[in-house]
Design goal:
- The complex is a heterodimer of chains A (442) and B (286).
- Chain A is α/β, with parallel strands linked by helices.
- Among the domains of chain A are: 75 residues, Beta Barrel (OB fold (Dihydrolipoamide Acetyltransferase, E2P)), CATH 2.40.50; 158 residues, Rossmann fold; 70 residues, no CATH class.
- Chain A is built from 13 helices and 17 strands.
- Chain A has a 6-stranded mixed β-sheet.
- In chain A, strand 10, helix 4 and strand 11 form a beta-alpha-beta unit.
- Chain A is globular.
- The mean pLDDT of chain A is 93.
- With 286 residues, chain B is α+β, with helices and mostly antiparallel strands.
- Chain B has 2 domains: 56 residues, Orthogonal Bundle (3-methyladenine DNA Glycosylase II, Chain A, domain 3); 176 residues, Alpha-Beta Plaits (2-Layer Sandwich).
- Helix content of chain B is 37%, strand content 11%.
- Chain B has 11 helices and 8 strands.
- Chain B has a two-stranded antiparallel sheet with strand order 1-4. A two-stranded antiparallel ribbon of chain B has the order 2-3. In chain B, strands 5-8 form a two-stranded antiparallel sheet.
- In chain B, strand 6 and strand 7 form a beta hairpin.
- The N and C termini of chain B lie far apart (111 Å).
- Classes of the chains: A alpha/beta (442), B alpha+beta (286).
Chain lengths: 442, 286
């Protein structure tokens, strides 16, 4: 069975919400919609206090090429355009809308029928995706239209669809594949058309055999799509690792997947693309896994963007008493929240609740030079060295050791027997080195 | 047998002589003539290589001083008046009179003033915590208390107070090199006049949020009310983005603003207890 070669770990899978069907979260009274839910420049608000908006109406316009439109997720009145404390405790510009029901923009097709044929030209498809504010749904939230605009001189050969979901606990992509498989397939054909490629590969880890089977069956109905089961290994969901596993090509350091003729999109993105192109529906809701060993009712919830994280936890049975940490995303790459009142965004794939005991870090001890972090690093880096260089502020050396290739999967820190905060320091270094490179360019 | 040893010794001698001649010619040809005064200045400089003067290392400063032939805008913060005077004497120049400076930590968000809301247990690095979230107290401008300024200080002049969780600058050890200013990801530390008898007055807050929001996280935040601006007789205080700032070049240390500040964001250091305060305390005692 296929997988990537270098490094990788196998953390406890804990997919406890796997058998829970997608459940719709009631529309909240007030939504807080951040204007920056994607990588790149924040969108510019185009509504003002007092404006009436409908569900799916454009409320903030993408600013520049690497940016994304933001749409209202409820219908109602704009109460304020102000800075709101986000999950990290910092204040970010958001649009606050008080909901008065759920009246959708007329152009959105709300019928559940599958619409298979797409008559649009490739350029029109990419424009549509841009207009509907689609971003990568796997968590990195990179604007999708940017990925689909292949730079001159490069040619895409393969569209790679990421159904790996290698993060423990998360099951949102899995449920989406089981319940909306056909729509995902249509979404993939649209993406293929937009990219002008005739081959698409779907990668799914084989801890989801029913999803693999279903997607394989469905793929026979569509031309050019193949589904591949992959051996379970973290971080297989990372672009470069997935490309290595499926087409056995290596993306050079500092380059994008298009360099080896690949474009990677998440299954969630494929579904969002289907809805955007075929149903005219902007991206204003997504599936969020709410899970954790102490959570009463681990669930997969379909929630509107801007719903507070607290509301989602309430639907999943409320916050357990001995909660130590609430994490946005998965346990490996997610971020602990400072504020559970913060809203979910386009990139929130999961909310993970951890008990006091689980959430405690190991005590930090000295590095014993065991080399385990080297063995597990999927990028072939030396995490202990990068962390040390970063701690000692040797930025030039860190750059020479390819610190920017680190994708922050956290395997090194997970495996470190001394509980060293390797990734913490590598992140400091990455930030600093990127800053130095930017100033060098100017 | 003997002749072999003789030839070997002779050959070695010949090679040695040829090499010596080449080396001598090269040395003469590529001789670097350096001003001997540079070495003299380096001798006087403290040799801390802290970068506080703005040059990479003491030698670099010495070269610049000798090259420019004047001490204008050049200063060794570590050596201060004494060292600059000595350099001036050696070079026959006039040393600029420099007001002694010191690093000042402009945050009073101690554990009691700005209580911990979320616990952090990652790497002790302010720059990382700053990247990650707003910090334990929730104030997005306040001190993160992980000690990046302590690590970077070469003079052991700054330390984190275990009770308040804030950095404390040692009055005698700090040389105002400015390393901590650069290390702090939140620009909390500032180099200010040391002041007569080490007396200083400054706004101990850098929070630019609106008053009500700032006060939610910290009881001693500057709320930008502007009372201090009105009361200041020497026009030293300016208010920008809900934050007051005292210009240390204009401040006459009259302490009027300290009494006026409703939140206690303005800090005075090393002043004797004011007469009014003594009166109040004596009344209470009586």
């Amino acid at each position: 069975m296929k997988t990537f070669k270098l490094g990788g770990i196998h953390p406890e899978e804990n997919k406890i919400s796997a058998q829970q069907p997608i459940e719709i979260v009631p529309i909240p009274q007030t939504v807080y919609i951040p204007v920056s839910q994607h990588l790149g420049a924040p969108a510019k608000p185009i509504v003002e206090k007092g404006d009436l908006v409908k569900t799916g109406q454009l409320i903030a316009k993408g600013d520049g090429f690497i940016s994304a439109n933001v749409h209202s997720s409820v219908s109602g009145k704009v109460v304020k355009v102000d800075e709101v404390v986000d999950y990290s405790g910092y204040r970010r510009q958001s649009i606050i809308i008080e909901s008065d029901g759920d009246e959708w923009v007329e152009t959105i097709d709300r019928t559940p029928d599958l619409k298979r044929e797409c008559a649009l030209e490739p350029k029109a498809i990419v424009d549509k995706i841009n207009e509907m504010g689609i971003v990568g749904m796997g968590g990195a939230t990179f604007p999708s239209h940017v990925k689909l605009s292949v730079p001159q001189g490069k040619k895409a050969e393969y569209l790679i669809i990421n159904g790996v979901e290698c993060e423990p606990y998360l099951t949102s992509d899995y449920r989406l594949m089981l319940e909306r498989g056909r729509e995902i397939m249509v979404g993939i054909t649209i993406l293929m058309k937009g990219l002008k490629v005739d081959k698409a590969m779907v990668g799914i880890e084989n801890n989801k055999p029913d999803a693999v089977r279903l997607m394989k069956d469905l793929s026979s109905e569509f031309k050019g799509i193949t589904v591949h089961a992959l051996r379970v290994k973290y971080p297989q969901g990372a672009e470069k690792q997935l490309i290595k596993a499926l087409v056995n090509r290596e993306v050079p350091s500092g380059k994008l997947p298009i360099e080896v003729g690949c474009v990677v999109q998440n299954v969630g993105t494929a579904f969002a693309v289907y809805e955007a192109v075929q149903k005219n529906k902007p991206l204003f809701e997504r599936i969020v896994t709410v899970s954790g060993k102490t959570v009463k009712k681990p669930s997969n919830l379909l929630a509107r963007v801007g719903t507070s994280i607290n509301d989602l936890i309430v639907v999943a049975g409320g916050l357990p008493e001995d909660t130590g940490k609430v994490i946005s995303g998965g346990p490996m790459m997610g971020r602990a929240l400072s504020n559970t009142g913060a809203p979910i965004t386009k990139g929130t794939s999961g909310i993970l609740v951890m008990s006091e005991k689980e959430s405690k870090r190991k005590k930090t001890m000295n590095c014993i030079r065991c080399g385990r972090c080297l063995n597990v690093c999927a990028m072939g880096l030396e995490p202990f060295l990068l962390a040390n260089l970063s701690e000692n502020q040797s930025w030039e050396e860190a750059e020479a050791e390819h610190i920017l290739d680190c994708m922050e999967c956290g395997s090194c820190q997970y495996t470190c027997p001394s509980g060293r905060p390797l990734l913490d320091y590598i992140r400091v270094g990455k930030n600093k080195v990127a800053q130095i490179i930017r100033t060098r360019k100017n | 047998m003997n002749s072999i040893i003789l030839y070997a010794v002779l050959a070695m001698c010949a090679i040695g002589i040829v090499a010596a001649i080449i080396l001598y010619i090269v040395a003469q040809k590529f001789k670097v003539i350096e001003d001997p005064r540079i070495d003299e200045v380096v001798e006087i400089l403290p040799g801390a290589h802290c970068g506080g003067c703005g040059f990479p290392g003491c030698r670099s400063l010495a070269e610049t001083i000798v090259k420019r032939g004047s001490l204008e805008n050049l200063n060794c913060p570590v050596g201060g008046k004494k060292v600059m005077g000595e350099i001036a004497a050696v070079l026959g120049l006039v040393a600029e009179e420099k007001e002694p400076m010191i690093a000042v930590v402009r945050c009073s968000g101690s554990k009691s003033n700005a209580p911990v809301k979320v616990q952090y247990e990652g790497a002790s690095s302010c720059s990382f915590l700053n990247q990650l979230n707003a910090g334990e107290s929730g104030c997005p401008f306040g001190c993160l208390g992980q000690g990046d300024c302590v690590t970077v200080c070469k003079f052991d002049a700054i330390s984190i107070d275990p009770v308040s969780g804030l950095p404390v600058v040692d009055n005698d050890k700090c040389v105002a090199c400015g390393a901590c200013v650069k290390a702090c990801p939140r620009q909390i530390i500032e180099i200010r006049y040391k002041g007569k008898k080490d007396r200083r007055i400054y706004v101990s807050c850098v929070n630019k949020e609106k008053g009500a929001i700032a006060r939610k996280n910290c009881s001693v935040a500057c709320i930008g009310c502007g009372k201090c601006v009105k009361v200041c007789p020497s026009e030293a205080i300016t208010l920008e983005n809900n934050l007051a700032y005292i210009d240390f070049e204009k401040c006459k240390l009259c302490r009027k603003c300290v009494k006026e500040c409703p939140t206690g964001a303005i800090t005075e250091l090393n002043f004797p207890v004011s007469k009014e305060m003594t009166k109040v305390t004596s009344e209470i005692e009586a």
